[in-house]
Amino acid sequence: MDINEMSLSIGEAANELGVSTKTLRRWADEGKIPCERSCGGQRRFQLSDIKRVAPRNIQPLEDRITINYARVSTHDQKQDLQRQVQVLESYSRTHGWQFETIQDLGSGLNYKKKGLKKLLKRIMKGDVQRLVLTHKDRLLRFGDELVFAMCEEFETEVVIINKSVDDTSFENELVTDMLELITVFSARLYGSRSRKNKKLIDGMTDAVKDATNSQK
Would residue 13 count as lying in a domain? Predict the structure, then answer.
């Protein structure tokens, strides 16, 4: 018999792919990989089908690393960034995880941050066992659910240490993100150098800052 025609159990097939049986079962249900049923109703997989999927080259869970991700919006928030890093590394060290820490600088609306792109590449490469954040909004202001869905697909656990809002930087970050939105949309409407654009940005900037100061 051709070795590629060998039939594997779900456990054997999952081990070949370096994923959990739960993930392999989901792939089979979604039609991503063919499977048959034995007389006893157990799933059976052909080795040839496993090899076809295997080029994803996902590492076994136990060989992957934990990545701590810390982010602030501006250079003025360096102390907050250092605090995040300390919390993340202490948490990972306490749990005995082998970890790396990625530090990022940029708005929560910016999808092109150097650190974020590095993180996503590592996840898609299949070598990240878990992603650790101090707060959910440290990843992105909007669109984080897409990243979490990617993590689920690549068997990356997401750990959020504090589920509450990060009050120490939330207001400052919100002002930064709002001003970025105003700048982008007004530039598209009126042109980046137009007098009308500058007047709109200045007016909205003052309004946002006044609203923030009134809450202090």
Answer: yes
Query: Of the residues 73, 92, 107, 169, which is catalytic?
Result: 73
Within-domain flag for 165: no
| Conformation bin of residue 2: beta by default, left when phi > 0, alpha when psi is -120 to 50 | beta
Task: Give catalytic status of residue 73 as yes or no.
Answer: yes
Distances (CA, A) of 177 to 36, 73, 99, 114, 115: 51, 9, 30, 18, 18
**130-147 pLDDT, tens digit each:** 999 998 888 887 778 888
Q: What is the pTM of this model?
A: 0.59
Other C-beta atoms lying within 10 Å of the C-beta of residue 95? 12
Q: Is residue 194 one of the residues assigned to a domain?
A: yes
Q: What are phi and psi of 134, to 5 degrees?
A: -75, -40
For 1-44, write each residue's pLDDT tens digit.
Answer: 444 467 889 988 888 777 788 888 888 888 888 888 888 888 99
